[in-house]
Amino acid sequence: MIRPIPQPGILDIAPYLPGKSGKPGSQTVKLSANESPLGASPKALAAMLEAAAHLEIYPEGSSRVLREALGEVHGVDPAAIVCGNGSDDLLHLLAQIYLGEGDEAVMNRYGFSVYPIITKAAGARIVMVDEPDYRADVDALLAAVTERTKVIWLANPNNPTGTYLPEAELRRLHAGLRPDILLVIDSAYAEYVTADDYSVGLDLVRAQQNVVMVRTFSKMGLAAARIGWMVGPDHVVDAVHRIRGPFNVNLPAQMAGAAAARDVAFTEKLRAHNAQWRDWLSAELSGNRLRVLPSQANFILVLFESPEIAARAFTTLLDAGYVVRETGPSYGIDNGLRISIGSEQAMRAVARVLKSMDEAQ
Description:
Order of helices and strands: EHHEHEHEHEHEHEEHHHEEHEHEH
Domain Aminotransferase class I/classII large: 28-353
Pfam family, one: Aminotran_1_2
Number of strands: 12
CATH architecture of the largest domain: 3-Layer(aba) Sandwich
CATH class of the largest domain: Alpha Beta
EC number: 2.6.1.9
CATH topology of the largest domain: Aspartate Aminotransferase, domain 2
CATH superfamily of the largest domain: Type I PLP-dependent aspartate aminotransferase-like (Major domain)
Radius of gyration: 20 Å
Structural class: alpha/beta
Number of helices: 13
Distance between the termini: 56 Å
GO molecular function: histidinol-phosphate transaminase activity; pyridoxal phosphate binding
Pathway: Amino-acid biosynthesis; L-histidine biosynthesis; L-histidine from 5-phospho-alpha-D-ribose 1-diphosphate: step 7/9
Shape: globular
């Protein structure tokens, strides 16, 4: 049978696997997708509802209102900001622009599973660098760079480990790169970081011509709205604008995002809740048989003694009404479970279930 054939390599790409949800109609608590446990900003909800009264109108193509709000809150020139249909949209565009046949992109072994997809889709090769003790290694990343390297993908903090590179190490990584290599700093979890030595990367973007920072509203309560944004130098912003969709962020999302960006009190409330229960759950679960990686995100990664115990823990939590993320299929961490930080009730229940399992062994 004659039919259209995908480009070489497309069917070799493993599709993205999202976190599981409970069965429809069940009371399962979803702790698998790093969503906000406090919902969305009330101001964002009000702005979205107001915008929904005008669904017959095309959105403003450049997301001007959203860019202006982001510029105001983060101290960035709105002209240096590009918005997208989630940060994935922008990552795809960057791969399409800067990667091609014969090129290479470098990432951490346990980095965000979208990076290999967008790299291979652009016809390039992904180079995965081992992470000693689940932390990014600047020296190893730099050693992986070749004459074919065009992009470095770096999630900071990283998903699914929650670990991060301090500002000094981030600068050392950039200093070791050729000027024709694009360093993409994916700061998706920046709102939840409490470490004093962390940087979202804006200073590097302002000072250099080969650095971009990518962010998202998904972890702040607007996952359903799909809003991402990036900051980059003029030549990168120009290239992205040339190929992005002309109306790639819908009007309700633009208005909700602008309101959410300005609602710094709600963002701080989310950060405080997350810090309290992230640290509490980490301390509760850390022990001889369970290891919790130190996290700066809105989730923790729990490591078990074996993949079999991790699988049993997943099932036991699911039976108790809590679905978490298995890290074997997407990330190759067969003995791990990623647990989003949820309500106090959910965190206490998860701790109780896992500690009971640990004590019973």
